[in-house]
Every structure is written in structure tokens, then in C-alpha cells.
Design brief:
It is built from 18 helices and 10 strands. It is α/β, with parallel strands linked by helices. A 5-stranded parallel β-sheet has the order 4-5-6-3-7, with helices on both faces. The structure holds adenosine-5'-triphosphate (ATP) and magnesium ion.
């Protein structure tokens, strides 16, 4: 039997490389290009993940209403103070704000209110300078701004000058702002909250974060100038996820391909794991991919478990690839053996051996102890501190629950990435 790894990067009509590559599924049935492309499952796979689905965003009326109430003054010619949007990953924050920005722009056009918007993803732009340059290039697309080389002072001067020249309403969305706050500090927020005192444009700001503790990273001085409006995106319930999946499945799959029970099960699983619509869609998509690979005409209930396993393995591989070099060496030391339980002394010995083999200078016991805690926080290992009976002292026990096939793949992944 040939083991085929489905991770097609084709550019045919309804499969985009980015989505299809998500969730690699290992399938042992024989598949051909024709069988995949002529499958009876997908109608338009893109529509499963499209940020704004044609059928619209469900179950976010309350949040949309709150935001409309907050943003409406812009259409009456005044700037709004900063609005905070919080919620766990996959709860529709980016989607709802994107939809609302479109609606706001349309209404502004109708009412002849001059409005320009800038959307910045702060996981990509983490410093005040790069955020300002990103905003500048969106507000003034005719000019090409340098990606590097500008000092903070230069970026601020250009930003102020452009806002004075434009004399318009500007709405700035800083998405995933927690990245910028943790790494770049809160200067950008202070600047945006104060900018209206000094320029001829009117700037309104929306901050999106999935870390509710984001205000811990904002200095009291900045907090006092920011608005107090907070819009919370709660995790989706099973019923809400069910509706979302149903409406998106209707667009993405062929008629009657997916049963209510499958959608119900996927919705229940994801509701219990954090109410993330993105993950629910990925799980449903993985069920569909397995159905395609198996040449099935329908997505059946028995595909949910293998789909879950596939995704869990992918998450594990993704997580491991983000570790630092010595964290990888430590993890490699632990998964090299067949053992699934160690004490921390044994782990350090194994780690030193791996370092020696890789010709790397090992770190101290203390650093490794910290890494053990890190790996445990990431869920890669379990680590518990308890009393050792015979030694009469406390010791850390580390447990790893991974099957031998996955260990083998992880070992290769780590070795290749060192
Ligand atoms: N209410 C909804 N109806 C339909 N689709 C939704 C809904 N909420 C989220 N989605 C879909 O789920 C995916 C994730 O949504 P989105 O990117 O808006 O989440 P987010 O809250 O911004 O997550 P993150 O914090 O990870 O950035 C998108 O594909 C989006 O279209
Ligand atoms: Mg988002």
C-alpha cells in the first residue's frame, strides 16, 4: 500500500494553495489528480474560508450594533475615541470589523463625508515606525514608502504632515495589537490617542486583540487618554457554530454532501475547545479532504475522528517548528528514546548527549529547567513536581504521550530544522 501525503498546491479553479495546504492529511488509499479534481464533495472550497462569506456573518448582531453606535459619530463629522475589540481566536473579530469598515465607507460616500481607512496587522508590523509607515502607505497609495531605513522621528513627521494635508476622517484599525504592545510598547496608542489635538484630519482608532489582559501592557498615562469602550466577542456556542458551519457548507460543498450529524458533531467538539469558528471550518474541511481521498460521495460521521487526529498532529508539528534551537534539542532528547516518563536529571543527561552529537555547547541545568516549563506550557509535555519516596526530596516528572510513528516524524522534523 502506498502512503500518499495530500497537500496539493494546485491552482485550479476552486482550490487555493493556501487553504488546501492547511491540515495535511495522511491517506493510505490510492488517489489520482483526476479523482481529486473531479470529486463529488467540493463546489467552491474557497467559500469555506472566505473572510466575508456571501451568506454573511451570523450571530454577531449584538457586537455589530455596539460598534455601529460607537462609529456612527464619524458620519456626523466627529472623531470617536478609541474602541477596543476583544475575543478569543476565531470569534469573528477581523471579519466583523472588515465588514463594518466596508459599510462605513459606503455610507460615508453616500453622505459625502470624506473618509479614508487604514488596516494594520500588528503581528506583521510590531513597532511604532513600521505601523506608521504601513498606515502612511495606505492613506497615500501614490507614494511608495520605504519598508526600512526610516527613523521613528521621520515616520512621525511624515504621518503628521500627511494628516494635515489630507483634512479627512481617518479610521485606523490595529488588528492583533497585543503583538505591538508586547514588543514595541504603547507609544503608538498614545500617539494615535493624542493626534487629533495637533492635525487637521480626524483620526478614530479601533484596536483588536485576543488577549483580554492587553491593558496590562498599556501605561496608565496612555490608558487615561484612550476611550473606555470595549466590545467583547464571546466564544461561539455549539448552536452558533452549527449555524455558521451549515451556511458555509451550503456554499462550499455540493448539495447534500454533508449531513446534519457531522456538522453537529464538529460544532460540539469546537464549542467545547474554545468556540473558534476557524478551527470548526478547518475540521469540517479536513473531513471533506478525507472523503475526497477515499473516493466517498458524502462526508460521513466516521470521518470526524480521523480528521481530528490529522489536525492534532499538524498542530504538534507546527508548534515544534516554532521552538528555539535549544528547546528543540531538549525536546529531541526526550522523544529520542521509547520512554514516556523521566525525571529532570535524566532529561538533562539525555539533552547533553544530544548536544554532543550535534556539536552544540549545552546550556546550564537552570536554563533547561526553564525550557521544561516552557514545553509544558505549550502542551508538548506534561511536567509535575512531586516527592520522590526514596530520595526524600522533590523532583520533577516529565511525561510524553506520543505514539512511535509521530515520534519518528518529529525527530526528522527537528533534525532537519537544526
Ligand atoms: N459569525 C461568523 N459567520 C461566518 N463565518 C465566521 C463567523 N465568525 C468567524 N467566521 C469565519 O471564521 C474565520 C475566523 O474569523 P476571524 O478571522 O474574523 O477571527 P478572529 O476573531 O479575527 O481571529 P484571530 O483572533 O485569530 O485573528 C474566518 O474565515 C471567518 O470568515
Ligand atoms: Mg483576526
Amino acid at each position: 500500500m502506498v502512503c500518499v501525503k495530500i497537500s496539493l498546491n494546485n491552482h485550479f479553479n476552486h482550490f487555493t494553495a493556501s487553504c488546501w495546504g492547511k491540515g495535511v492529511c495522511v491517506i493510505t488509499e490510492k488517489v489520482t489528480f483526476a479523482s481529486v479534481l473531479d470529486n463529488p464533495i467540493y463546489r467552491d472550497r474557497d467559500l469555506l474560508y472566505k473572510l466575508l462569506p456571501p451568506s454573511g456573518l451570523l450571530h454577531r448582531t449584538e457586537q455589530k450594533n455596539e460598534l455601529i453606535m460607537e462609529l456612527a459619530p464619524i458620519l456626523m463629522n466627529s472623531a470617536v475615541s478609541c474602541v477596543f475589540v476583544y475575543g478569543n481566536p476565531g470569534t469573528g473579530k477581523t471579519a466583523v470589523i472588515t465588514e463594518l469598515m466596508g459599510e462605513l465607507e459606503e455610507e460615508a460616500k453616500k453622505r459625502k463625508v470624506s473618509l479614508t481607512k487604514a488596516y494594520v496587522n500588528c503581528s506583521e508590523n510590531r513597532t511604532e515606525t513600521t505601523i506608521l509607515i504601513d498606515i502612511l502607505s495606505q492613506l497615500n497609495p501614490e507614494r511608495s514608502y520605504p519598508r526600512v531605513g526610516w527613523t521613528r522621528g521621520k515616520a512621525i513627521a511624515e504621518f503628521t504632515k500627511l494628516l494635515n494635508d489630507l483634512k479627512t476622517h481617518v479610521i485606523v484599525v490595529l488588528d492583533e495589537v497585543d503583538y505591538a504592545l508586547k514588543e514595541g510598547g504603547d507609544d503608538i496608542l498614545y500617539r494615535l490617542s493624542r493626534v487629533n489635538d495637533t492635525v487637521k484630519s480626524k483620526v478614530s482608532t479601533i484596536l483588536i486583540s485576543n488577549d483580554v489582559k492587553v491593558s496590562d501592557y498599556i501605561k496608565p498615562k496612555t490608558q487615561s487618554t484612550l476611550g473606555r469602550v470595549k466590545v467583547i466577542f464571546a466564544p461561539y456556542t455549539a448552536e452558533e457554530l452549527e449555524d455558521i458551519l451549515k451556511s458555509r457548507a451550503k456554499e462550499a460543498f455540493k448539495k447534500e454532501v454533508v449531513s446534519e450529524q457531522v456538522i453537529q458533531k464538529v460544532a460540539e467538539i469546537e464549542a467545547s475547545r474554545g468556540g473558534d469558528a476557524r478551527k470548526a471550518l478547518e475540521l469540517l474541511d479536513t473531513c471533506a479532504k478525507i472523503a475526497v481521498a477515499r473516493g466517498l460521495k458524502k462526508i460521513t460521521l466516521d470521518l470526524v475522528d480521523p480528521a481530528l487526529q490529522t489536525l492534532e498532529k499538524d498542530e504538534l508539528f507546527g508548534l515544534v517548528s516554532t521552538l528555539t534551537k535549544h528547546q528543540k534539542l531538549l525536546y529531541l532528547a526526550m522523544i529520542k528514546t521509547k520512554a514516556s516518563k523521566f525525571d529532570s536529571g535524566k532529561v538533562y543527561k539525555l539533552y547533553r548527549e544530544v548536544c554532543e552529537k550535534q556539536n552544540v555547547q549545552p546550556l546550564t541545568v537552570r536554563s533547561i529547567r526553564t525550557f521544561i516549563v516552557n514545553l509544558s506550557e505549550l502542551g508538548l509535555i506534561r511536567s509535575e513536581v512531586g516527592w520522590l519516596k526514596d530520595l526524600r526530596k522533590k523532583s520533577r516528572t516529565i511525561t510524553i504521550d506520543i505514539d512511535s510513528a509521530t515520534r519518528k516524524k518529529l525527530r526528522k522534523l527537528i533534525r532537519d530544522s537544526l
